[in-house]
Amino acid sequence: MIDIQTQFVKNVLEGAGLSLKDSGSAFAPSNIALSKYWGKRDPELNLPINSSLSISLGNLGTKTKIRLADADSVSLNGTPVDLNDGFAIRTLEFLKLFPMVGTHFEVRTENNIPTAAGLASSASGFAALVLALNDLAGWELGGRMLSMLARLGSGSASRSIFEGFVQWHAGNCDDGSDSFAEPFSKPWNEFRIGILELSNARKPVGSRDGMNRTVQTSELYKSWPAQANRDIETIRTAIHTQDFPTLGKAAENNALAMHATMMSAWPPLLYLQPESIEMIHQVQRVRAEGLEVYLTIDAGPNIKLLFLEENESQVAAAFPRLQVIQPFG
Amino acid sequence: MIDIQTQFVKNVLEGAGLSLKDSGSAFAPSNIALSKYWGKRDPELNLPINSSLSISLGNLGTKTKIRLADADSVSLNGTPVDLNDGFAIRTLEFLKLFPMVGTHFEVRTENNIPTAAGLASSASGFAALVLALNDLAGWELGGRMLSMLARLGSGSASRSIFEGFVQWHAGNCDDGSDSFAEPFSKPWNEFRIGILELSNARKPVGSRDGMNRTVQTSELYKSWPAQANRDIETIRTAIHTQDFPTLGKAAENNALAMHATMMSAWPPLLYLQPESIEMIHQVQRVRAEGLEVYLTIDAGPNIKLLFLEENESQVAAAFPRLQVIQPFG
Fold first, then answer.
1. Segments making up each domain of chain B, as ranges
2. Nearest CB neighbour to B264, from listed A253, A274, A277
3. For residue range B197-221, what is the model confidence (pLDDT) as tens digits?
4. What values do phi and psi take at B257, rounded to 5?
5. What is the ipTM, given to two decimal places?
């Protein structure tokens, strides 16, 4: 397993120089997919079945500093992490893919996204780690290569290499060389995302296992790749023309379709909680009253709202617990 | 529209005698689909896109008595129904398809299923009406023909012509002549159904509109017919071998997949309420603890449990508000 990943890393770094510094540091934003990544075609290289499209969350994300050391150490938000903890294990295993840089690392990570808000920290985490490595090693890799390295840590991390709207191309090659992310379009300053934190209960099934179960057992999943392709095209066009209702509709439909594939897996995969359903109904109600607000949901119970600046006060009034994010600063 | 239905009725009644009695009466059971009917290929003849398979609910259903009269009248559970009420309108419109029997009818209907329990009364209602007509007119039609007439009133009514396990064959013909129900297999005396009445709120979208919206807008629906065909075969075999876990699993997966197609429609069709989600999680929890209980859900918020007699007390303990039905008396 490590061999395939090691070979992939070698291919990406071919031709890159090595000019070690004392330490490397970087920030990477969290991101929320408007058209979701759901289903792997290769679990070792994290190659997806379908392309996905996201929006990065501006200055909300992960800041990571790494330096070479005599022994491994990991800290998170200033607190040392036990090396047997899952977070430390995944971080250090990832760094083992880069023996040309070093064998032991001191890793200091800071997340300024509330972990409980249901925002994936693995996306910004692995993206920041790769960017910090690039800084430490002096590779001077381009975004495409960096996104492919981040992908090895976590699929959605490939998108967190960039700001703004980002598309992760699924690619076709078995060696993973054409599965990378790229940013597109200009800022959309009026774009807002609202987080409704409904539950910070630990997920009963992680995303990785959840998508595998869905791919293997859901009959409806067979129609998912076509839906994803359709939604990405719709959303791309809507971003270029700044057609918010079209974007919102496609994003909400895409998220609910992803949850539909989960629900039709066996055993049924139901990340939604009673409060999630209440909020989905509430979004439909206020939209029926004329408010332009749409939702998206990742593999968890929390609801994220999509709306424009001009409707922020009305949305906040309809959803009192809302935490508003400005993805373009 | 009426013309196509009138022609269909003529075809079905071709060769049937007419030997009018004073009155006709009949009982038809309600039924619960284990593999759902979801999607019409012809809205006038109520021809389904996929076959479905149900279990009739024994002595729970509708008793109807009709007689020829000088003016139309309809009563429900002993109370006269206003002729502008939707129930009266649908009943009398259906009877207008049978001018060879009479032009005005007195219809007395009694349901012994709690309407609020989320059990469709239109299925047993139209089946009982057709059976009562057959009695009144002396047609002496066989079950297959009766099921096709009941289908014109409500698709699922075709299955309520029979007791026990029933399959409604979707058929292929445009004229609807091969879309009929038939019973199969012997009684399964240990089979139990438990109703969890969670909400008797009126559905925001009726089944007819709901299935049309799903067929027209859900990308995932494209995989639904294949799922339905697979589930019917699995359930048929499980009934013959009395393999309850296999039946339960296929029925639950089928119901959740139907709701998945709804959820991925646009606008999203979410019949599930917060309490429905709570119960779906609860079923998964108790099953993980070893209790053989499965669920099914129709186009509404209420949950129906499937289990065997031997587990009845345990299921009742886990679901306090349970109302238990013995489909085989």
1. 4-183, 191-325
2. A253
3. 887 666 778 889 999 999 999 999 9
4. -65, -40
5. 0.95
